[in-house]
Design brief:
Blueprint lengths: L1 H15 L3 H17 L4 H10 L7 H8 L10 H11 L2 H4 L11 E2 L3 E7 L5 E7 L7 H15 L6 H18 L2 H14 L5 E2 L12 E5 L6 H4 L4 H22 L1 E3 L7 E3 L5 E3 L5 E3 L2 H16 L2 H10 L10 H21 L1 H6 L3 E2 L4 H12 L1 H7 L7 H17 L2 E2 L1 H6 L7
Parallel strand pairs: 4-8
Antiparallel strand pairs: 1-2, 2-3, 3-5, 6-9, 7-8, 10-11
């Protein structure tokens, strides 16, 4: 297994005196080959691991990033068997023959185009056979790989919490009736100017099939050729939409793969794939709004208390006196991260997300503080996919080279209590 190979490669490379980056590259290639052969939740967990690129060695993060690519489509004959099991005769009577060539393929299902008998163009998302039944087994296997390969900087209890959250989200993602509900919830609660959602066809939606009206848009590769001011408009729209979800509505689209977004030359955005939507509690949103205000105002005490309220500090910090002592020790850490990261986001108006120094400098400072972080902090499983959303949107903004007045975007959002 990849976990055992990873341990062996690292040990052998140290004996041979190979560079750390080269040994991590070998490990990353092992993981990429193993995860590429696995389907469903396993491959998606590999994609989630690649979101930790900010703290992983570059040699390891690079191969894992390849897991963000599209999956290979399965033959239509195989997918039609799923449709036959999911659709009744009256439902089949609503659609014309599907195009046999898949429009797109991912880790859990693939999409085919067709037309309803009433003339509407639609896309039919069909779940792969057996995927729903494999989630527990896949997550268990990936948990073993993560522990043996020591891929993520988490202790056993923290990793268990993260895996529980991943398992719950991936089980939801294999249930297309839930995805339909999430699409409807996002449409109702996460509306944002210029952001468009596909219109579902509920009469054709089942546990293993999701049908929406055809909503074509340009890929991010095409959007890169838009005029700079259009890309800036798209970037500001993406950022405002994301912050509104995380801080206000609590309905977060947590699968920010560029392929799940379509772009328009008028600056609009179409959002696809609602299998991974995280509903964030009001209690968590309150603390994240506190963090937003604290970072903007450089109030490290308020930041520290909000992180504690979210459960992000170690058990020792449950005692107020110990927490105060930890704040004294961590204040330089907060200040150092802010100096290379959030201070720039608020001071440079507009901020150029195409400037790689933001992530490069933040990664450098974070790695310097990694040992302290592992000792004094712990992950917050309910917010794992919020972190995924934030990270994924950053990389889209960076790829677009968007220049955004971040404080102006934040001021457009009505934040309760601020």
């Amino acid at each position: 297994m990849a976990g055992m190979r990873s341990v062996g490669r690292l040990a052998a490379s140290r004996l041979r005196g190979r560079s750390g980056d080269q040994s991590w590259t070998d490990v990353g290639e092992d993981w990429f080959r193993t995860l590429s052969e696995m389907k469903g939740a396993a491959m998606k967990l590999g994609q989630l691991a690649s979101q930790y690129a900010d703290v992983l060695p570059p040699g390891l993060a690079g191969p894992l990033a390849q897991l963000q690519r599209d999956a290979e489509a399965r033959p239509y004959a195989e997918m039609k068997q799923v449709l036959d099991a999911q659709w009744s005769a009256p439902q089949w009577a609503m659609v014309r023959p599907l195009q046999p060539t898949a429009l797109a393929a991912a880790s859990i299902g693939q999409v085919h185009r067709t037309q309803l008998v009433d003339g509407r163009e639609v896309v039919v998302k069909i779940r792969y056979p057996g995927v729903a039944d494999s989630v527990d087994e896949d997550v268990l296997a990936l948990g073993r790989l993560l522990r043996m390969g020591k891929l993520l900087p988490l202790d056993g209890k923290a990793l268990d919490g993260l895996l529980d959250e991943v398992r719950a989200r991936f089980k939801e993602e294999t249930d297309y009736t839930r995805e339909l509900a999430y699409l409807q919830a996002m449409t109702a609660h996460a509306a944002w100017p210029g952001v468009r959602y596909p219109v579902p066809v509920p009469a054709l939606c089942t546990e293993g099939v999701l049908v929406t009206e055809w909503a074509p848009a340009d890929s991010i590769e095409t959007a890169l050729d838009y005029a700079p001011e259009v890309r800036d408009q798209i970037g500001a729209r993406l950022l405002g939409w994301l912050l509104q979800q995380v801080l206000v509505s609590g309905w977060v689209h947590a699968d920010p793969h560029p392929g799940n977004f379509g772009f328009h030359a008028d600056g609009g955005i179409t959002v696809y794939d609602f299998g991974c939507v995280r509903e964030v509690s009001e209690a968590h949103r309150v603390q994240m709004r506190r963090i937003t205000g604290a970072v903007r105002g450089q109030d490290w005490t308020a930041l520290h208390e909000a992180v504690h309220a979210l459960g992000g500090l170690g058990r020792a910090a449950d005692d107020a006196q110990a927490r105060s002592a930890l704040l004294d020790a961590m204040r330089p850490h907060y200040q150092a991260l802010a100096a290379v990261g959030t201070d720039r986001l608020f001071a440079e108006r507009p901020f150029d997300f195409g400037d790689a120094r933001l992530m490069d400098d933040t990664r450098r400072v974070a790695r310097q503080e990694l040992v302290r972080w592992l000792r004094d902090y712990r992950p917050i499983p309910p917010l794992a996919f919020v972190g995924r959303a934030l990270s994924g949107h950053y990389w889209m903004l960076r790829r677009l080279g968007a220049r955004i007045d971040v404080p102006a975007v934040l001021d457009t959002i009505a934040l309760p209590g601020y």
